[in-house]
Specification:
Blueprint lengths: L15 E7 L7 H12 L12 E6 L4 E6 L9 H8 L12 E7 L2 H5 L8 H8 L6 E5 L8 H13 L4 E3 L12 H19 L4 E3 L7 H13 L4 E4 L1 H4 L1 H14 L2 E4 L13 E2 L1 H11 L3 E5 L4 H11 L13 E5 L6 H9 L4 E3 L1 H5 L5 H16 L4 H5 L3 H8 L24 H7 L2
Parallel strand pairs: 4-10, 5-6, 5-13, 6-7, 8-9, 9-11, 11-12, 12-13
Antiparallel strand pairs: 1-3, 1-4, 2-3
Helix pairs in contact: 5-6, 5-14, 7-9, 10-11, 14-16
């Protein structure tokens, strides 16, 4: 244990370093947790000490430490193997469900072995011709079980109401009532015709998630045939290797690869968890161009957003930036807070606002778009509503009391108990 725990260790440039929180169960001490962690890692041997991990910067009050893994443990470009090693800290049946991987820093050479996004935020902005505000997006609703004709009508009204992006939900597949090839043909054609009529650039993102990589690659090619430049995958469900394979396909076809959720199936109720910030970094390395980061404005979503949009981060120095997508579900008035805390390099998904507008989908899209324009331009929404009847009607349907602001995105700590279970619950917020 002494060779693993090295409080004064200084990480090498070739080390991969994770920051972990290891909250001991009530019947264990932090020392017990570290002992079990050694068994879970099972790296190196007395004959190969250069392959052993090191735990340093231990904080027994906060239950945190950093773990340095020698770079020679990792195969370049192999994200499944990398994640298997670092997530081993979550797999102990005794401590796993109390563990969190909070941060990750890769050595430069290993980082460069992953492709990163094919296009940056700036590239996508240039494609659509919008440089000074967040992009607006709406998922088609209902999320499944709807005929193509109804989706076609919704897409038209969303675009004509002002939405920049129409995307399919994570539930969409290819069914007898809504077959993928037919759907992408109709919606791709509708988008092209809308652009030709109005001169406004719009985006349609079909969900190509399927049961095999081969079928997803076929759907990507079919999307390209119909003039569609963006494709969506359910990153949680398809896995790391499939994402890497589709990144190659996307690059070959000139497609923008989007992920429906900021996760890769690694968070579990039975084991520990990986923070949204780390998952965002992993998917950026793998080549995702647009990434859903959730529907809550909190510290984790801010860290995830910064991880994706910071072009100068030491954690993504070799890669393009990535557009974060955050879902706005509560009040239109909360959009202002999102932009204040997350910035303009953001896609705001607002189907909840759009489809509950009493005057229909087009009016809902207009209200949503005007709320974004007002917030991005520093205009009070009530003033903007005086010039836009759709926004005025939407705001009149909402409670006057706004959702609580996240002041500086700094959380108030929860009181601790002897078991510290509240801390683990708190981290999962």
């Amino acid at each position: 244990m002494e060779s693993f725990i090295a409080p004064d260790y200084k990480a090498l440039k070739t080390d991969l370093v994770i920051t972990t929180r290891l909250v001991p169960p009530a019947e264990h001490s932090f020392h017990d947790v570290m002992s079990q962690l050694i068994a879970a890692l099972d790296l190196g041997s007395p004959l190969s000490p250069q392959c052993q991990a090191k735990a340093f910067k231990l904080n027994q009050e906060q239950f945190t430490c950093q773990i340095a893994f020698p770079g020679k443990l990792f195969e370049e470009g192999n994200m499944p193997q990398l994640m298997s090693i670092i997530s081993s800290v979550l797999e102990s049946p005794s401590i796993g469900h109390h563990a969190t991987i909070m941060d990750l820093s890769m050595p430069s050479q290993l980082q460069a072995s992953f492709p990163g996004p094919g296009s940056s935020i700036q590239n996508i902005r240039e494609r659509i011709g919008i440089s000074d505000r967040p992009l607006s997006s709406s998922v088609l609703r209902p999320k499944a079980g709807v005929a193509i004709k109804e989706y076609l009508s919704h897409a038209y009204h969303l675009w004509s109401g002002g939405c920049d992006i129409v995307e399919e939900s994570g539930f969409m597949a290819s069914t007898t009532e809504n077959e993928f090839d037919e759907r992408v043909s109709f919606l791709g054609k509708e988008r092209s015709q809308y652009i030709a009529r109005t001169g406004q650039q719009k985006i349609y993102i079909p969900n190509i998630t399927a049961g095999t990589i081969q079928e997803m690659q076929r759907r990507a090619r079919k999307s390209k045939e119909h003039g569609v430049d963006y494709i969506l995958i359910n990153a949680d469900q398809i896995g790391l290797a499939a994402i890497a394979s589709l990144r190659i396909t996307s690059q070959e076809l000139g497609l923008i690869l989007c992920a429906n959720k900021s996760g890769v199936g690694l968070n579990s109720h039975h084991h520990g968890r990986i923070s949204g910030k780390v998952i965002a970094l992993i998917l950026r390395h793998l080549g995702i161009n647009m990434l859903h980061i959730g529907s809550e404005l909190n510290q984790e979503s801010k860290e995830s957003s910064n991880t994706l949009t910071n072009a100068f981060s030491h954690q993504a120095e070799h890669h393009q930036t990535c557009f974060p997508i955050i879902t706005s579900e509560g009040s239109l008035r909360d959009i202002e807070d999102m932009i204040i805390h997350l910035g303009n390099d953001l896609i705001i998904e607002g189907s909840a606002h759009v489809f509950r507008h009493p005057d229909g989908v087009k009016a809902g899209a207009q209200a949503f778009q005007q709320a974004i324009l007002a917030a991005a331009g520093g205009t009070d929404q009530l003033s903007a509503a005086e010039k836009n009847s759709a926004l005025k009607r939407a705001l009149s349907m909402e409670p006057e009391k706004r959702s609580p602001k996240v002041s500086g995105l700094v959380w108030t700590p929860l009181p601790r108990s002897s078991s510290h279970r509240e801390i683990d619950t708190f981290l999962s917020l």
